[in-house]
Amino acid sequence: MGTFAKGGSFLLSQTNPEEVFTPEDFTEEHRMILKMVSGFVTDNVLSKMEDLEAQKEGLLRQLLLAAGELGLLGADIPEEYGGFELDKISSTVIAEGMGRAGSFAMTHGGQTGIGSLPIVLFGTPEQKRKYLPEMVSGLKIGAYALTEPGSGSDALAAKTKAILSPDGKSYILNGTKQFITNAGPADIFIIYAKVNGEQFSAFIVGRNAPGLSTGTEEKKMGIKGSSTRTLILEDVEVPVENLLFQAGRGHVVAFNILNLGRYKLAANALGGAKFALELAAGYANVRQQFGTPLAGFGLIQEKLAEMAIAIFAAESMVYRTGGLFDEMLRNLNVTGVQGGSGPIVAKASEEYAVECSLNKVMATEMLGYVVDEAVQIHGGYGFISEYPVERLYRDARIYRIFEGTNEINRILIPTTLIRRAKKGDLALQEGLERVERQLELASAVPPRNGAADLVQAVKDLFLFTLGSGIKILGDGLLKQQEILGRLADLAIGALAMESAWLRAEKARAREGQEGARLKRMLAEGYIYGRIGSLKLTAAEALAALTEGRDLEQRLAEINALCRYEPINTVALRRTVAESISAAGHYVVT
């Protein structure tokens, strides 16, 4: 097995800009895929949005078949089962492009991600041969049934049971699943149930299985064009050969698929945010007030710039993480591995579970911010359904709930890091001790000089705050959700800032100072615009941990870690906004 960056290690070391993947590294094939997806969404989805939102009978199947003809359903599926087994950057590009497609992005994700990946990664060769080719073509539609009325984030509390039949040839499933995407048209369900009420397991269940039925379509705030129904299981007989992976190992399937789902959702959010900025910039260019286009007003310029800055940071994170996946998979030797490459690919998703959560939280909250500002720029018209931005606003809200709520993901981030450190998989203690040594003398922490230093400052803030929590509370820290949430925000800030900065530095080395000017401004806008709030985040966590002189000392220490001179972000944003307005859409050159 080769070498690759460990998950979470970005917090403990510096990364060479040339080691990160950025959108500027797209191959010609990546660019062709993005162009194809954009064309598909424009011609087939946006043009039919009214019918899609009205859930016109048969339209979802028609769109999936059209996507299948273009190869947009098989990026992650091996060639021997009809897929294309593209690199993770290619599948990320597809997910980003589908982010413009509104509710159809959920249908597509349900098919290509959570609906088929359990079989891709954990299925037997027979299961793969039976189900995957028709899923690649769109002839069969997949759905993923994990959530129940009484168990959402706490998936392992599922009540659905699977009892082995007396003849040992099948499992009998009983229970109810809720909020199941693609449930209406689905032909194949990945259903989670507890064998004998104890062993959490995954099953492949066909639509026509006697006793399986669905409720009516849920009436949703947004993503109205996707199918969301309750799945009802009444003595559903499932052949034993349809057990997926192993009895009692369903959590391995579920959690690894969720990791990949979170990452893909971040890419969807990126595409949706770019679309919202495009609509906002176009409107601001033509809408006039007081004889001047909206794009000429300072506060509107600030909005356009901040939207672009947030998108740039999220984009840099998403593709950096995709590059990590590809680098790890290139270094994994799957030859002779029992069960094929599936478990190894799943191991890759487990390795970068923290990064998947970081991306999911950051990108989905970025999307929420961007669509909100897009509506604001449209003014009253943004509140009218005739304008697409109204739909984007409603559709975006679910992103912070899907694939594990952002609150759950915030808890997972520091919890996973701490547990990995205890197992010896992450040298977290060394990082904590380095920051402690650095603070022994205030003079050992020089004022931060420039964006790169501020990136390191946020990493140090995370490590110092985490170290304080461990010293004061020990294992009790894992029960303090408010503090864990703030630690997660510091980690998100560190990855977003560093990814944006490394991308700008990589561009400067290749394109020169002038060629990379806008990228540098976008990175600096993100870093300088958020360093103050992250410092406050650390201070709030420390104030929850201690008080009195001890708190004063620790606050003085974070001040020492985070001394810097502000730059003129007002002028910076004006320049960024000019570029966005001139292009009429998100642009980084």
UniProtKB/TrEMBL annotation:
Recorded catalytic activity of this chain's protein:
a 2,3-saturated acyl-CoA + A = a 2,3-dehydroacyl-CoA + AH2
Required co-factor(s) are: FAD
One Pfam family of this chain: Acyl-CoA_dh_N
Q: Where is the Acyl-CoA oxidase/dehydrogenase middle domain?
A: 143-236
Coiled coil spans: 42-69
Domain of life of the source: Bacteria
Q: What is its EC number?
A: 1.3.99.3
Family recorded in the similarity comment? Belongs to the acyl-CoA dehydrogenase family.
Q: Which PROSITE patterns match?
A: ACYL_COA_DH_1, ACYL_COA_DH_2
* Gene3D superfamilies documented for this protein: Acyl-CoA dehydrogenase/oxidase, N-terminal domain (1.10.540.10), Butyryl-CoA Dehydrogenase, subunit A, domain 2 (2.40.110.10), Butyryl-CoA Dehydrogenase, subunit A, domain 3 (1.20.140.10)
Question: Matching InterPro entries, A to Z?
Answer: Acyl-CoA-dh-like_C, Acyl-CoA_DH_CS, Acyl-CoA_Oxase/DH_mid-dom, Acyl-CoA_Oxase/DH_mid-dom_sf, AcylCo_DH-like_C, AcylCo_DH/oxidase_C, AcylCoA_DH/ox_N, AcylCoA_DH/ox_N_sf
Q: Where is the Acyl-CoA dehydrogenase-like C-terminal domain?
A: 458-556
| Protein's UniProt keywords contain Oxidoreductase | yes
Q: Where is the Acyl-CoA dehydrogenase/oxidase N-terminal domain?
A: 27-138
Q: Which UniProt keywords apply?
A: Coiled coil, FAD, Flavoprotein, Oxidoreductase
EC main group: oxidoreductase
| SUPFAM superfamilies according to UniProt | Acyl-CoA dehydrogenase C-terminal domain-like (SSF47203), Acyl-CoA dehydrogenase NM domain-like (SSF56645)
Q: Which GO terms describe its molecular function?
A: acyl-CoA dehydrogenase activity; flavin adenine dinucleotide binding
Provide the Acyl-CoA dehydrogenase/oxidase C-terminal domain boundaries.
Answer: 248-413
Protein name, entry field: Acyl-CoA dehydrogenase member 9, mitochondrial
